[in-house]
């Protein structure tokens, strides 16, 4: 800068020598005091200008710092907004993934429920088929027993014609006999049996008659073949002596299937060793019954004790006496 000023000054000196010779504004003052005052004022002006220049420089620096801070803040804000957008996108993706997971879980649950329902329906169908097969087997067994019972009844009729006594009319004169005699033939369709038993089954009718003679009821809902064992547990007297049977007693037979058979004793003649029984679900009993094997009847003529020991494939298991 100094070299430039000197070069300019030389050029000016060539053309305007009087201007270049004046090195300082105050050099041209002849009065020393005034020149000194001029120098002082000039220095003050220079100092003030320097001070203003520095202040302007500081202001510029502050402005630059402010711009830098603002730019930094702007960049930080941009970065924060970018992070917020990324976080929002991440949360949206997580929410979408969770929604898909829940939908998949619901679909799996629905599939599992459908499989469970299908399995339940299959089991129900199998159980229904099994029950139908069991019912067919019971019907076949009942038909077989019916044939055997008819043969036994024919033999009993022949025996009665050669001296075996017929059932006396007084056999139905007891309270049990009166109840049996007054009961409708199709018990299953006209009278409500014990709700623990299936209507039309032998257990339903035998326990109904038993309840007419016993002060304590037999609590049982199983098959006839297990009546004697259950009656013992409940404190009832179970005997194999048929002569001890009283009206209303239950006489039980068992067979290989476990179902067994039970009948009610209407009367017992110990002298002739014969018994009059009433039963259901044994042979073809009543044309009005809902099934050919269901219907109440009294067996004529009386059975002998020996005949009651075995009826077809059914073996005598005991007599349950009422209390």
- The backbone outline, from C-alpha atoms, is rod-shaped
The CATH H-level homologous superfamily of the domain at 171-321: endopeptidase domain like (from Nostoc punctiforme)
Mean pLDDT: 77
Q: Can you tell me the CATH architecture of the domain at 171-321?
A: Alpha-Beta Complex
Uncertain segments: 1-9, 153-171, 186-194, 285-293
Strand content: 5-15%
Major sheet characteristics: 8 strands, antiparallel
Helix and strand sequence: HHHHHHHEEEEEEHEE
Number of helices: 8
Give the fraction of residues assigned to helices. Answer: 55-70%
Judged by helices, strands and strand pairing, the structural class is: alpha+beta
CATH topology of the domain at 171-321: endopeptidase fold (from Nostoc punctiforme)
Q: What does the oligomeric state look like here?
A: single chain
* Total strands: 8
**CATH class category name of the domain at 171-321:** Alpha Beta
The N- to C-terminal Cα distance equals 142 Å
The radius of gyration over CA amounts to 61 Å
């Amino acid at each position: 800068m100094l070299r430039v000023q000197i070069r300019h000054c030389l050029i000016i000196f060539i053309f305007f020598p009087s201007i270049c010779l004046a090195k300082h504004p105050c050099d041209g003052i002849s009065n020393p005091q005034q020149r000194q005052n001029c120098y002082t004022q000039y220095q003050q002006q220079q100092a003030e200008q320097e001070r203003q220049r520095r202040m302007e420089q500081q202001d510029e620096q502050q402005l630059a710092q402010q711009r830098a801070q603002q730019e930094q803040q702007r960049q930080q804000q941009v970065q924060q907004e970018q992070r917020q957008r990324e976080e929002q996108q991440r949360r949206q993706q997580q929410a979408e993934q969770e929604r898909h997971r829940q939908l998949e879980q619901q679909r799996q649950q629905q599939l599992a429920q459908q499989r469970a329902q299908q399995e339940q329906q299959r089991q129900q169908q199998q159980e229904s088929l099994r029950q139908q097969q069991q019912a067919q087997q019971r019907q076949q067994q009942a038909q077989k027993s019916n044939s055997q019972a008819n043969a036994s009844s024919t033999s009993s009729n022949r025996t009665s014609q050669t001296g075996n006594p017929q059932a006396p009319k007084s056999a139905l004169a007891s309270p049990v006999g009166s109840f049996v005699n007054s009961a409708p033939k199709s018990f299953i369709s006209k009278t409500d049996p014990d709700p623990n038993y299936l209507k039309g089954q032998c257990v339903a009718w035998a326990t109904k008659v038993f309840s007419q003679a016993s002060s304590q009821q037999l609590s049982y809902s199983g098959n006839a073949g297990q009546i004697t064992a259950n009656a013992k547990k409940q404190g009832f007297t179970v005997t194999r002596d048929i002569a001890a049977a009283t009206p209303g007693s239950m006489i039980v037979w068992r067979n290989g299937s476990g179902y067994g058979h039970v009948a009610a004793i209407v009367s017992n003649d110990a002298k002739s060793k014969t018994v009059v029984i009433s039963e259901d679900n044994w042979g073809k009993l009543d044309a009005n019954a809902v099934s050919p094997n269901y219907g109440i009847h009294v067996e004529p003529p009386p059975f002998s004790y020996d005949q009651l020991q075995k009826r077809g494939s059914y073996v005598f298991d005991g007599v349950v006496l009422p209390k």
